């Protein structure tokens, strides 16, 4: 799995990397049990500070998406549990992603109304 960061993107590098990993997990490109590169390996590959990668891994671990086993590595965790708790986790994730999406759109000069109109035109047909 290759992660890409865009130096021209207004989002900070850690936010871009977090988004990339979350997307890879949600899309199934990274499956439960898959091992991620070490902090140092990924930092060298992406040419970012190791603290940036460590921060992203810690955030994703706190959110229940990753699990770090000391001396072994960082792995994708199994999906959220089903039922009410699973639903709450998914809704928290949706709120987080929505806020980031709106912030990214605002950085490009779009309002929330512009975004909603676009989503309705694009996905309202389904």
Task: Describe the structure in brief.
With 126 residues, the chain is mainly alpha-helical.
Can you tell me about this structure?
- The chain is mainly alpha-helical.
- It folds into two domains: 1-78, Arc Repressor Mutant, subunit A; 80-126.
- The protein contains five helices and three strands.
- The protein has helices at 13-27, 39-46, 50-62, 83-107, 112-123; strands at residues 35-36, 66-69, 73-76.
- A three-stranded antiparallel sheet has the order 1-3-2.
- Strand 2 (66-69) and strand 3 form a beta hairpin.
- The radius of gyration is 16 Å and the shape is globular.
- The model has no long low-confidence stretch (mean pLDDT 89).
Given helix and strand content, the structural type is: mainly alpha
How many H/I helical runs? Answer: 5
Characterize the main sheet. 3 strands, antiparallel
Shape field: globular
Write down the overall mean pLDDT. Answer: 89
The SSE order reads HEHHEEHH
Strand portion: 5-15%
**Proportion in helices:** 55-70%
- The total count of strands amounts to 3
CATH class of the largest domain: Mainly Alpha
- Give me the CATH architecture of the largest domain, please: Orthogonal Bundle
CATH superfamily of the largest domain: Winged helix-like DNA-binding domain superfamily/Winged helix DNA-binding domain
Give the CATH topology of the largest domain: Arc Repressor Mutant, subunit A
How many angstroms separate the termini?
A: 30 Å
Provide the domain count.
2
- Gyration radius (Cα, Å) is 16 Å
Low-pLDDT runs: none
Strand order of the largest sheet: 1-3-2
């Amino acid at each position: 799995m290759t992660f890409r960061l865009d130096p021209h993107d207004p989002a900070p590098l850690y936010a871009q990397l977090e988004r990339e990993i979350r997307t890879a997990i949600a899309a199934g490109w990274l499956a439960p049990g898959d091992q991620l590169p070490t902090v140092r390996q990924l930092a060298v590959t992406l040419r970012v500070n190791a603290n940036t990668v460590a921060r992203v891994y810690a955030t994703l671990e706190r959110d229940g998406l990753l699990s770090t086993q000391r001396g072994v590595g960082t792995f994708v965790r199994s999906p959220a549990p089903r039922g009410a708790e699973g639903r709450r986790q998914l809704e928290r994730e949706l709120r987080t992603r929505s806020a980031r999406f709106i912030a990214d759109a605002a950085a490009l000069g779009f309002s929330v109304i512009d975004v909603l109109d676009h989503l309705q035109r694009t996905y309202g047909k389904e």
